[in-house]
Design brief:
Elements lengths: L1 H20 L4 E4 L2 H7 L6 E2 L9 E5 L6 E5 L2 E7 L5 E6 L3 E2 L2 E4 L5 E3 L5 E3 H11 L7 E16 L11 H4 L4 E16 L14 E7 L5 E10 L3 E6 L1
Antiparallel strand pairs: 1-8, 2-7, 3-4, 3-8, 4-5, 5-6, 9-15, 10-14, 11-12, 11-14, 11-15, 12-13, 13-14
Length: 233
Amino acid sequence: MLKNIIYIFSALLFASCTKSTNTSSIKVVGEMRDVMWKGDLKGKIATDSLNNKETYGLGPIEFLKGEIVVFDGQTFVSKVIDSISHQVTKIPSVRAPFFVYSTNSDLKVVEFNRENFTLKELEEYINSVYKDYDQPILIRIDGLFDNIKVHSVNLPEGKKVSSPDEAHQGLTQYDFKNISGSLIGFFSRNHKAVFTHHDSFFHAHFISDDLEVLGHIDETDFNSSKVTMKVSK
């Protein structure tokens, strides 16, 4: 009997300690792999349910009709027009089949330890600085980006999806140089194929200061002296 009581107490103590370490404000709805491999394209969350000026989030529009950034609590979407242009719109709400977000962000400035960064180098830097932190992290970087390549998904009407290649039908990329704006990204070692791709810990979108460019970031180069990075756990 005494052994059973000790076992139950130990289990409750472990559960309590585990819960207390999960301090991240970041939440996830849906999973990227279900969209890519199972064709689960319907929206699972509407952004008007996240109406808070401290909210940041990203994901695709349901049925893969564009990209979403929730920025300072406001919803912005991008949709492909053609191979050289896309349209960015501020709207009250949009639905996403998977979405990562924080409604209670507490962004703090973090100093860089090097001068120039690519997207991969930024991911490696975050991984190194927060090597002892095992929860998702929100990253915001504001300033001038030397180069940036973004894309918007644009799945043709009626197309079915059962693989990443099929999900990327209609996807269109756009390249920009010396563009001012904000990178909004989420880092996690534990969410591959949930909100990051299978080969990355980082998923980031970009929105320009003039609100004319928005998309999922595929590549970027920037000088740390021209930007400010903030981080929220």
